[in-house]
Amino acid sequence: MSGAPPDRRWLRASASFPAPVIAEIHRAADEGVYDIRGFGAKRHLPTFDDLLLLGASMSRYPLEGYRERCETSVTIGTRFARRPLELAIPITIAGMSFGALGANAKRAIGMAASAMGTSTTTGDGGMSPEEREASKLLVYQVLPSRYGLDPDHLRACDAIEVVVGQGAKPGGGGMLLGQKITERIAGMRDLPVGIDQRSACRHPDWTGPDDLEIKIQELREITDWELPVYVKVGAARVGFDVALAVKAGADAVVVDGMQGGTAATQDIFIEHAGVPTLPAVRQAVEALQELGMHRKVQLIVSGGIRHGADVAKALALGADAVSLGTASLIALGCNRPDYVEDYHALGTEPGFCHHCHTGRCPVGITTQDADLETRLHPEQGARRLRNYLTTMTLELQTLARACGKSHVLNLEPEDLAAVTVEAAAMAQVPLAGTNWIPGR
Collapsing DSSP states into helix, strand and coil, what is residue 27? Predict the structure, then answer.
């Protein structure tokens, strides 16, 4: 009968073709090109939430927070560098380029990291004066694109990070769309103004780890063997990659899980390439242990780190430090419910925005638009990020003390239990309430 209500027996979503999948197929059919976005993976993945810390009771004694110290310092680059990085906290800021971020955002990040006694990282496209001025400890990234690479800037920084891959796009290069390539960005990268830029996915002057060893030697000679040299890999074949980075002479290895964010790449890449951060940590630690290099070559873990509990669990699995990308931008104000009308103009809402690639960031973080940039005041952003880092550090210390540790790096796998079989297998720690470790 005309106008009859639909038969509700058939109003059941398909598991294989839910509404978002149907909408994406319709979009692809209309446009004939893959979707590009910023931010990180949105799919559900095993995370550090699937692990629990085992606080002390009878078999171990907790520390008294008011009377017993819990140290947080860490030194990065003790293998070869004459001037390793001395960090007050094991929480660093990951590489995010000037281009992906605006100058005010880079300045705010540098100010907050300096106040906390930790390091920040340049990202692709070279070093901006604002960033160097604001950052007491600055790590200079050398990426496949070589955009903005300057030997004088290398010498002016405090460490070097050779980027082989990123967690959001292992095996792929980054993108910077033309609307974000202003005259200043184009000048730093030697690119035409307003033209989409796709970074190279592999370094142009090496084809394997032996060539990487030569490149690391060149970087050491340029900087007179003073600065630590990191190698950053996107989590994929983690064990092999970490071992080869150590063989090539890295002082530290950065492993970026697939929850790591990006300013712009294909959505299909973000959601379907790489492995989660949780198993990547364990695989990296095992590779270092097999080589007898654990704690001699420092391990920095990134990709979806959000709070002090994530940091504590990463350190318990064997990392020396963590690195924040997306979380630091959220602390600055990313997805904050301000300027809601501008979110609506992008077709989104605060809390759901992933439009970093458009250059129309409503809160002035991932933009080169002069008017939008003024919405992020560097001092205010730095204060927010500093507060966030302070909170994370206090949370980390609280959990470490509860496990009876006088230094956060004394956390160990024996302080962990898993609440899912998947997390127990990935982290190789017992399933809670049992002695069972899947696969052993």
Answer: helix
